[in-house]
Amino acid sequence: MRKILLLLIMLLSVACSAHLNAATTTIYKPVEEREFRTFSIKTEIKINNPILVLPVQTKPPIPKIVTRPEIITKPKEIITNSSEWLLDSNISWYGPGFYGNRTACGLELTKTLIGVAHKTLKCGTIVIFKWNGVIVSAPVVDRGPYVNGRQFDMTGGLCVKLDHCFTGKIYYRIDK
């Protein structure tokens, strides 16, 4: 087997060297100028016979795009009229980096703004929070949070008032 491989390698190397030698000895002559011919292309075509006139092309009609109706799923609405406290096990707060910007409800976000962000509750809806004996009511002032599984984001002013500037659990209820 080795002998066959060595023989093939030797044959290939000989063939390649012969080809290279032949390529280096080929002499190319330049083409003489008299062999070039000039010509012109007619760009205008006249059709005198009216039968041969092609109809004017118009844009094809735009087809109607038919899509399947989307299934709209609303997030769970928080509806409570009772005085019972609900537990949110994953509330957070936001503010730094957003101070000076407008909220979705049109207020300027400041360090002292007391409010909460929620995805579906109307702007101005009052949410009452309870933490370690402190109870604070805050209006919905923004949209969010944009973290899966989270219902509320407190503003910096609310988290300071409640002394709850961390991600964790808190009790709340919606004032209707």
Order of helices and strands: HEEEEEHE
The CATH class name of the domain at 86-175 reads Mainly Beta
Alpha-carbon Rg, integer: 40 Å
Question: If strands are numbered along the chain, what order do they take across the biggest sheet?
Answer: 1-5-2-4-3-6
Largest sheet: 6 strands, mixed, barrel
State the helix count: 2
Q: And the CATH topology of the domain at 86-175? A: Barwin-like endoglucanases
What overall form do the CA principal axes indicate? Answer: elongated
- β-strand percent reads 15-25%
Question: How many strand segments?
Answer: 6
Residue windows where pLDDT falls under 50 for at least 5 positions? 67-81
CATH architecture verdict of the domain at 86-175: Beta Barrel
Helix content: 10-25%
In CATH, the homologous superfamily of the domain at 86-175 goes by the name RlpA-like domain
| Mean pLDDT across all amino acids | 77
SS-based structural class? alpha/beta
Distance between the termini: 91 Å
